[in-house]
Amino acid sequence: MSIHIPLPIPTHPDEASSPPALSEKEQALYNVVLEHFSAADYTIPDINQEKAALVVDEKFWLSYECLLRYLRATKWDSNQAIKRLEDTLKWRRDFGIYDTITPQHVEPEATTGKEFLFGYDTRGRPALYMCPSKQNTEESPRQIHYTVWMLERGIDLMGPGVETLALMIDYADKAKNPSIGTARTVLNILQTHYPERLGLALIAHLPWLLHAFYKLITPFIDPLTRLKMVFNPVITKNGLFRTAVDAEAWSANSESRVFEPDQLVQEGWNGSQPFVYSHAVYWEALVKLCEERRSRMVAAWHCIGGKVGTKEWEVKIAVRDEAMNVQVDAENVLAKNGQLQS
């Protein structure tokens, strides 16, 4: 029987870990950035000052982990981190993250399932699948909007302690690459405005002819991102691995497995999940799942204090625990009514 909706977010209450403590120097640099954006009179520079105050969505985005991602990306240069954060704040407004790029706007790009979110790797990272052979539109800004919208939804679906996603690109069925211009634009957005959001990029069924394309764009990919790219990963009955050596050496106690079979789709990736993209079912389910989760996260953020520098960890733990409590309550009600079988 086919599956047409995303898998639920893993809970793993015992496996999630809170952010590690900072060194004294790191904490001091973090405090510089935090104090800058927390100032009562702070406004985003170089824009209309009547609209330059931070809105709720922007304060929510400026989390503890977000500030640290930009500090790490700038090698702990607090001034550079502040500049890059402000550049991204302006970009998110100009690009339309909060208003223009809506589900209704990007839906025409989604009808064939050329991109979809499904399952999680062994580190809990959401898997964003890309299927270039299912391209259904001509190159346009909306194509890039759609990719960014899907990236944002992947971020919505990250559980506690998870800050990155797994990108899954399948070049089967005579898939074609986007133009160099489009590829460079997307790369620039990812590297400039989503630092440290890519955990792994798995590129399957890459024919030798398309290796030339990757050689052309490699100069535009930063060295750290290149290290996260795995071409033609090995897939066995035990799951997905980076290399044949990892697959052969795998055991139940090994950490070399990237995906368990029940978190992988069958088509193209030989997983055990019979996922089939049905737009009418999947799209509604994904939009609802992400909107409800984000609403719960924002509500939890407000309860915690609703300030710049709030930890994503605390927000997601609150949402997870609330969901688990609701599930327990529901099971107790069923048990009392004699509807829950052991």
From TrEMBL:
Residues 1-21 are annotated as: Disordered. Pfam families: CRAL_TRIO, CRAL_TRIO_N. CDD domains: SEC14. Residues 117-277 form the CRAL-TRIO domain. InterPro entries: CRAL-TRIO_dom, CRAL-TRIO_dom_sf, CRAL/TRIO_N_dom, CRAL/TRIO_N_dom_sf, PI_Transfer_CRAL-TRIO. One of its GO terms (molecular function) is phosphatidylinositol transfer activity. Transmembrane segments: none annotated. This is CRAL TRIO domain-containing protein. It comes from Suillus discolor.
